[in-house]
Amino acid sequence: MIDVKIDKSIDARGAACPGPLMELIKAMRSEPVGSVIEILSSEKGSSVDAPAWLKKVGQELIEVEMMGDYWRIVAKKIK
Amino acid sequence: MPKRIVIVGGGAGGTITANLLIRNLYRQVTNGEVIINMITNRPDHVYQPGFLYVVFDKVRPHEIVRKQQDLLDPHINLFIDPAVKIDRDKNVVFTESGKESPYDILVVATGSRIVPESIPGLKEGGHWFYDLEGAKKLRDSLTTFQGGRVVIAIGVPHKCPVAPLEITFMLHDYFKQKDMLNKVELFYTYPINRLHALEPVSNWTYPQFEKKGIKYEVLFNMEEIDPVKKVVKSMEGTEINYDLLITIPPHKGAPVIEESGMGKGGWAATNKQTLNNAGYNNVYIVGDTTDIPISKAGSTAHFEADVVAERISSEIQEGSASTLYDGKVVCFVETGFDEATYVWFNYKTPPKPTPPSKMLHWMKLGYNRLYWLSAKGVL
Fold first, then answer.
1. CATH number of this structure's domain A8-76
2. Where are the domains of chain A?
3. Full set of structural domains in chain B with CATH
């Protein structure tokens, strides 16, 4: 686990709707530039979908980590 | 000294909570041990899912509006005076008229609102149906629409997550009825990489879109609209031309939440089971106002109101509370003008949509009328 200060953490485990990626998009829209956002997701697809979206919109993926039965995705809003 | 319960917000969550509290605490209220006050910002109560039907002229606007006072048990004191600040350390709500309303227990159910102004060009170039004026304007534009590309674009966050699909399916049937399907291209967009947040609903939707000829683009988050060139641009760098743009604008919570330092964007930090505001055991959050990552919908507010009313009643009558919210959400999904499906899910149970049927559509139409009993705490 990379040691980084988390500015906004969203526990989306078990959240079927709107789901982890929508929560990440919401946070990317509302948090200020420079914020580090952490999403916890029990959806395996998030570990692929979230990085793909971040790449598409030019935001920074810091790490994706499997934490047992869930995934931790950390991203930084850089623009 | 009576125990004072103050409920801020007179939408579905606040109204159901207030009426259920009276049912549970009738003796304490009538003998003066408990006072229930509701502070809200408008004298009318609007059944918001009705907007969808206003668009297609299937419901008249007056059918989805009631006087707030008429929905509340007469023992509830109603104040039409918007809350402007909540001081959770001093247990006081301040209102626009300058009044102070002290409380022992507070329920915050201030809801959410659309903010089309947060997307450049949206107010000038786009339609929406998430308020009465918007729904009527869209209804009138559809009446005179001669054909072309209709784009559906969705802001984040938004309430009623099934509405984007419902409006798309209903638009298809609307143009079919008008014999205009050969002149209209329906183009649906969605913020994430499938057609709906709920994967089973999304899986069901792909073949439906194929069958109905509805085009789509996923991973499309509207960023800017050029109302002159009639182009909607996405965060992802793509552009779509439109002749008619129908949007779900992004939402924010009520200004009083941010003004009171309760949460960015108007979403208050909420325990997902107890529904307590973080750090304040005498403050509950209900409905769209929570920051819980689940659907912002009327049914969510309803089920949360059940829990909050039970917890407050138990605290007053028994000294402690144990009822917890399990994340339950129920949504009807109109799949056209004459069929619907529905989904339910909670924190532990994933959704499993049932096949659409006329019966479910009629149930939805029936619920549109029965809602007023829900608001009164009867249903």
1. 3.30.110.40
2. 8-76
3. 3-111+254-328 (3.50.50.60), 116-248 (3.50.50.60)
For B150-207, how does the pLDDT look when each residue is reduced to its tens digit (9 = 90+)? 999 999 999 999 999 999 999 999 999 999 999 999 999 999 999 999 989 999 999 9
Contact between chains at A22 and B191 (C-beta distance less than 8 A): yes
Confidence at residue B11, expressed as pLDDT on a 0 to 100 scale: 98
Q: Are B113 and B42 in contact (CB under 8 A)?
A: no
Residue listed under structure tokens 């301040």: B94
DSSP per position, chain A: ------SEEEE-TT--SS-HHHHHHHHHHHSPTT-EEEEEES-TTHHHHHHHHHHHHTPEEEEEEE-SSSEEEEEE---
In the block, residue with structure tokens 């099934």: B162
Q: Write the ipTM.
A: 0.93
Residue A60 backbone phi and psi in degrees, to 5: -95, 130
Q: Do A22 and B198 touch (CB under 8 A)?
A: no
Average pLDDT over residues B249-273: 97
Per-residue pLDDT, B147: 98
Of B193, B236, B329, nearest to A57 by CB-CB distance is: B236
pLDDT for B336 equals 96
Per the annotation, the verdict on A27 as an active-site residue is no
User: How far, in Å, CA of A9 to CA of A74, rounded?
Assistant: 9
